[in-house]
């Protein structure tokens, strides 16, 4: 699963995206790879991204083999 830009006008935290993934983890029983914040320099500077704790996602998706932020 690849998640690119999740914002509209400002660079909000991706916490709401993480919450959705955790809430619906049962819909991804075969998910082995999760890639968050896949953006290019023209879309956003890395320093502008507001990070959050990703632990709940790792706990909700124990079969993940690859995880990148």
From TrEMBL:
Source organism superkingdom: Bacteria
UniProt cross-references to InterPro entries, sorted A to Z: LRR_dom_sf
Protein name, per record: Leucine-rich repeat domain-containing protein
Biological source species: Streptomyces sp. SID7499
